[in-house]
Amino acid sequence: MSKISVVKLKKKKSQNAVIDEVFSTDEAIEIEKNETEEAEKKCVLIIAFTNDNHLSNVKMIQSIFKQDYENITLAICNDNTGNFQEERFFYNLAPNRPDGVRKIYFNCNKYTIGEINSFKNLVNKFESEYVFVIHSGEYFTENSSIKKCVEIFEENENSVAISARAEIWTDDMKKCSETITYSVDSFLFDKLIGGNTKKMSDCMFMYRTSLFDDIQITNDYKKIYLNIISEIEKNKSDITVSEYSICKFSPQSISNVNA
């Protein structure tokens, strides 16, 4: 049975279990599975950013829960997007949670601090070998997406990051209309115009957590990958570019609307 532990929140009995409510925006919740043995697989920290689109938030979490990798820490963050439905969203975390998601951390920033600052806080909070960022409305293409990226890392020991492809689909999510991939030209273009064209996306990258011991993550850009890849390029470290499509999304699925 899962163990539920919460920080600084009043307890309230739900229909399923005794849990602590998490609906004030300056608090955080941790839901941790009671494991008796240390995980054999290297830990992947998935940082999932929510927005005001409730349906896309839930579908993103369901996509994560379908991953067949056996050691995932899930850190969910809302950066004070304005109309995030905390209580409604929270009750989607317990059902259908797989054994591979060993810890869930849920935090809502009381004030907007920016995604890069939220990212740095969460990376420093947890021990993991790899870290991956996903946003509301972005979904894994396969149940084995995380596992495949870890395998790519194991085959490329000198790489500090992996860049996979992402797919842009039609709003009905029935057809892929475009595939985006990492290239120096795309990266430089995103830096120039602010990373708002979907030339690239955070969900295309997985990083070795040890990378952050060697680089200083700046706040020069709003997008997380722009800050990190800039430092990787500056240090001339290795990035493995894969033709594997890891995530998919549509313009509608990533829109910040209250659905």
Task: Report what the structure shows.
With 259 residues, the protein is of the alpha/beta class. Helix content is 24%, strand content 29%. The protein contains six helices and 13 strands. Strands 1, 4, 5, 6, 7, 8, 9, 10, 11, 12 and 13 form an eleven-stranded mixed β-sheet that branches. It has a two-stranded antiparallel ribbon with strand order 2-3. The two termini are 33 Å apart.
SSE layout and pairings?
Layout: E1 3-6, E2 11-13, E3 18-20, E4 28-32, E5 44-49, H1 54-65, E6 72-78, H2 86-90, E7 101-108, H3 115-125, E8 130-135, E9 139-140, H4 145-155, E10 159-169, E11 176-180, H5 184-193, E12 205-208, H6 224-235, E13 238-249
Parallel strand pairs: 5-6, 5-8, 6-7, 10-13
Antiparallel strand pairs: 1-4, 2-3, 4-7, 8-12, 9-13, 10-11, 10-12
